[in-house]
DNA sequence: AGGGTGACTGCTA
DNA sequence: GTAGCAGCCACCC
């Protein structure tokens, strides 16, 4: 049983609160949590005990690129997430970059 | 108690 | 424009 700290809980809550068809960045998310360190957010998602309940694919980096695993798009698992995002209206490039940067939600 | 890691970011060469 | 280095916070061993 993994101990979900308050910080992680906030991360999951924030991600879960992201409206459909929208995405956000690690930086803004971290800033909203009052940390300013996206690395900490990445840690929380890495330890993500909530699985699909927490759509981590909605979180992208500052370069508007999807963060699948190890910061790079590797594996068809991530590709599936991209497809899922596309179904919500968020289309990504074949390189994993967000096509429409206006879909990035900076406040929610 | 201390050190190392990481799904990141930003600056500099 | 591309590549490499340092800084940052939280979690794990």
TrEMBL record:
Record CDD domains: ATase (cd06445)
Stored PANTHER family: METHYLATED-DNA--PROTEIN-CYSTEINE METHYLTRANSFERASE (PTHR10815)
Keyword tags: DNA damage, DNA repair, Methyltransferase, Transferase
rRNA-binding recorded as keyword: no
Protein name: MGMT family protein
PROSITE patterns with a match to the protein in the record: MGMT
Signal peptide interval: none
Domain Methylated-DNA-[protein]-cysteine S-methyltransferase DNA binding: 6-90
GO biological process: methylation
Pfam families for the chain: DNA_binding_1
Enzyme class: transferase
A molecular function (GO) term: methylated-DNA-[protein]-cysteine S-methyltransferase activity
Signal keyword on record: no
Enzymatic reactions: a 6-O-methyl-2'-deoxyguanosine in DNA + L-cysteinyl-[protein] = S-methyl-L-cysteinyl-[protein] + a 2'-deoxyguanosine in DNA; a 4-O-methyl-thymidine in DNA + L-cysteinyl-[protein] = a thymidine in DNA + S-methyl-L-cysteinyl-[protein]
Xref: InterPro entries: MethylDNA_cys_MeTrfase_AS, MethylDNA_cys_MeTrfase_DNA-bd, MethylDNA_cys_MeTrfase_DNAb, WH-like_DNA-bd_sf
